[in-house]
Design brief:
Chain B: This is Transporter substrate-binding domain-containing protein. Chain B: It comes from Harenicola maris. Chain B: Keywords: Signal. The complex is a heterodimer. By secondary structure, chain A is an alpha+beta fold. In chain A, 58% of the residues lie in helices and 15% in strands. Chain A has 10 helices and 11 strands. In chain A, the strands form 3 sheets. Chain A has a 5-stranded mixed β-sheet with strand order 6-8-9-11-10, covered by helices on one side. In chain A, a hairpin with a 5-residue loop joins strand 8 and strand 9. In chain B, helix 2 crosses helix 7. Chain B contains 8 helices and 9 strands. In chain B, helix 2 links the parallel strand 1 and strand 2. By secondary structure, chain B is an alpha/beta fold. In chain B, strands 1, 2, 3, 4, 5, 6, 7, 8 and 9 form a 9-stranded mixed β-sheet that branches. The chains are: A alpha+beta, B alpha/beta. At the A-B interface, loops of A face strand 7 and helix 5 of B.
Chain lengths: 502, 245
């Protein structure tokens, strides 16, 4: 409002600069055109006057030649003098002289030499009594000399010039003042009003339209079009502003809701973490507490078998051996659950890990098992990654262990570990085997807790290996993908540490 | 006392002079030296004679020189009262009342020296060109002869110069006028011109009063009377002698 007020005050006290510029340009253009037009006109007038002067000489000669010749012929000196005076009275005649053959001179006008054009006409009398025809067919009685001047033409042109200049000056002054006044009324006044309206800080917040002072039924012009466009823009802006405000309000509400949900989620996550931690602590505690009794029971059963070798019958021995085997399975399960409970905590000790070196270390651990089935493990150079070496070891242990365990007895086991496409990841590798493969129907479920596709008797196992692999990969902000077909081996591709943009 | 009365009488005498003067007579003639002309003594012989006679007759005379055509026109319109220095013409007698002749002058032809023209009869003139003054009267038969090849000029001087220049064969005028011209401004033409010895006519000079003047007859009568008186007492002869006549 203050700005608009200042603009209004400034507009009221200053002349219309735009109007002055327009008028100045118009005046300059008019001046140039007037000069060109007037110049052309004056030049043409001057040329016409010149021609008139020159043709006047012919007219004078035609009109006065006869009378002067006759007067000279009759020695009518007074008549000659009168005719010379008459010729000299002509406006364009600077001087005129008539010289008779006897040497008598009649002169009128300025001295010879000040003329612009000099014409000389011999005066020859033809016919009449005792004409005394000479060889030329007449009797020369004298000479008429006519000195013509363009002073009159020049004076007229200058007079015209000053008249045109003065009239154009007056006309221009009056027209300029009128134009300025009209421009002020038709344009500048309305522009100031528009400027004041637009300069108002609140103009885009209200729907109050701008109106120019117009008579009822008066003609519209481009100013009205500008005002209509401004009012339309104002209306649209207000509507858009309201829409944005509504959207912002909605976003605020959504944000508040999201915040609430985030809080709830954080609470739930915290709760879940707490629950997980309690579960894992419970699992650890149970598995840890179960480990000692199972070990004790296994020792006892071994002792019984060893000490009672001569006492126990075959059935008793078989039952005891089955019990020992079952305890072994239970110990294995407890170990696996214990290991899982440690890993599922998700704590990752960040350090640079050479995946290739780690894979070779793990493969060396399985050398006896590999040799036993004639398996070959090929490990290509793998990238380095920042992560938890222990967890990554568990990852390789389970992948290589599964590849050896699920080898196809019909063909030599071949295991290859090599780098994979790692665009967007810090490291990626694939563990491929030519084992029995996995039906694609089970590709998702096989990563579930305790999920197995074979019985323990078919292929021993607990069903936690791939769950552990997925947990380790998740702990390292990665993903694990399976590509396999039953009977054609399996390829597990691990990608670790997703790269963020920037 | 006497001086006062005497002075008073002089004042009265002076004041009544206009009352004592006679009626004003406006006399005009053309430029026709030696008879009349602006630069001539007393405006020429004719005008001095007329003025002297009329003044002696008791008139108040005003003299002026005008072109001949204007002299006649002015007499017809009443702008002048007396035409001086003219020959008698029956046509002009219709509006002018002539006085007695006061002078007689012969009219001679002038030819270019050595041209050998002999003018014995009017027919001798026919093959020749003659410069004649516009409105001038020379001789009744000559003036009315349609077979004469006339070249009209304004003044006798023009005619003489045209003859000297070989532009016309003859000119004519009063011998007084011719001799005056040849003795004056045209003296250089003297050897080139020849005055034919036999005059065409002898013309009398008159003064004439416009017929519609209320005192026309009285003026003419007074003129004639005074002229006779002046001839009788010799003053007229002395007057003429002043002008070389």
């Amino acid at each position: 409002m203050e700005l608009a007020g200042a603009q209004k005050r400034a507009g009221a006290s200053e002349r219309s600069k735009l109007g002055l510029h327009v008028v100045l340009v118009a005046v300059l253009i008019n001046a140039v055109l007037s000069v060109v037009s007037a110049g052309s006109q004056l030049y043409l007038d001057y040329e016409r006057s010149r021609q008139s002067v020159l043709s006047g000489a012919e007219q004078i000669e035609k009109s006065f030649h006869g009378p002067v010749t006759d007067a000279l012929w009759r020695y009518d000196d007074s008549q000659v003098g009168a005719l010379v005076e008459g010729i000299g009275a002509h406006a364009s005649v600077a001087f005129v002289t008539v010289t008779s053959t006897e040497g008598t001179v009649w002169r009128h006008g300025a001295e010879q030499g000040r003329q612009d054009v000099l014409r000389r006409f011999p005066l020859v009398h033809h016919g009449g009594p005792l004409s005394g025809e000479g060889p030329s067919g007449g009797v020369e009685v004298g000479v008429l000399e006519l000195g013509l001047t363009f002073e009159g033409a020049v004076s007229r042109v200058w007079a015209q010039f000053w008249t045109i200049a003065l009239s154009n000056f007056i006309k221009t002054c009056i027209a300029s003042m009128l134009m300025l006044a009209m421009f002020e009324r038709l344009v500048t006044r309305n522009l100031r009003r528009i400027s004041a309206h637009v300069g108002d800080a609140d103009w885009l917040r209200t729907t109050l339209p701008l109106r120019l002072p117009r008579r009822e039924g008066g003609a519209r012009d481009e100013m009205d079009d500008i005002v209509a466009a401004l009012n339309l823009a104002q209306t649209r802006h207000v509507a858009a502003l309201e829409a944005v405000q509504a959207e912002i309000a909605g976003h605020h509400a959504t944000h508040a809701k999201l915040e609430q949900q985030a809080q709830e989620l954080a609470f739930a996550v915290q709760n879940l973490k707490e629950t997980n931690r309690e579960q894992m602590e419970f699992s650890y505690a149970v598995s840890h507490d179960l480990k000692s009794p199972t070990n004790t029971m296994a020792m006892m059963l071994d002792e019984v078998l060893h000490e009672g070798a001569g006492v126990l019958d075959a059935d008793a021995r078989m039952l005891l051996e089955a019990a020992v085997d079952t305890l072994g399975r239970m110990r294995n399960l407890v170990d696996r659950v214990l290991a899982y409970s440690l890993i599922v905590e998700g704590v990752v000790e960040e350090e640079p890990v050479d995946l290739g070196a780690l894979a070779r270390e793990v493969a060396a651990e399985f050398s006896d098992q590999a040799e036993a089935i004639g398996a070959q493990i090929e490990i290509a150079p793998l990238p380095e990654v920042t992560g938890d070496a222990d967890q990554l070891r568990v990852l390789f242990q389970n992948l290589i262990g599964n590849a050896l365990r699920y080898a196809d007895p019909q063909r030599p086991c071949r295991i290859a570990i090599f780098p994979a496409e790692e665009a967007g990841w810090e490291a990626a590798f694939t563990v491929r085997d030519n084992g029995i493969g996995i039906d694609p129907a089970f590709h998702r479920t096989i990563f579930g807790l305790f999920k197995r596709l074979h019985t323990y008797d078919e292929i021993p196992g607990v069903g936690l290996g791939l769950t552990l692999c997925k947990r380790v990969v998740t702990n390292h902000q990665g993903e694990i993908a399976l590509a396999s077909t039953e009977g054609e081996g399996a390829a597990f591709t691990v990608r670790l540490k997703r790269k963020t943009d920037g | 006392m006497k001086s006062i009365v005497f002075a008073a009488l002089w004042v009265v005498f002076i004041l009544v002079q206009p009352l004592r003067a006679g009626p004003l007579i406006r006399v005009a003639a053309d430029e026709w030296p030696p008879f009349s002309g602006d630069n001539l003594p007393e405006k020429g012989l004719s005008l001095e004679v007329i003025a002297t006679v009329l003044t002696r007759a008791g008139y108040d005379v005003q003299v002026q020189i005008l072109p001949w055509a204007r002299v006649l026109k002015s007499a017809q319109t009443g702008q002048i009262d007396v035409v001086g220095s003219l020959f008698n013409d029956p046509e002009r007698a219709a509006y002018l009342l002539y006085s007695e002749s006061y002078y007689s002058t012969p009219v001679h032809f002038v030819q270019k020296a050595g041209s050998g023209h002999v003018i014995a009869a009017p027919a001798d003139i026919y093959p020749l060109s003659v410069a004649v003054g516009e409105g001038f009267l020379y001789e009744a038969a000559f003036d009315s002869d349609p077979q004469i090849n006339r070249v009209v000029v304004t003044t006798t001087t023009q005619g003489l110069r045209m003859v000297a220049g070989g532009r016309v064969d003859l000119t004519l005028d009063s011998l007084d006028v011719i001799e005056y011209a040849l003795a004056g401004g045209l003296s250089r033409l003297g050897p080139e011109l020849e005055i034919l010895p036999e005059p065409l006519a002898r013309n009398d000079l008159f003064m004439a009063v416009r017929q519609d003047h209320p005192q026309a007859g009285e003026i003419v009568r007074d003129f004639n009377l005074v002229l006779d008186e002046m001839r009788g007492d010799g003053s007229f002869a002395r007057l003429l002698a002043k002008h070389g006549s």
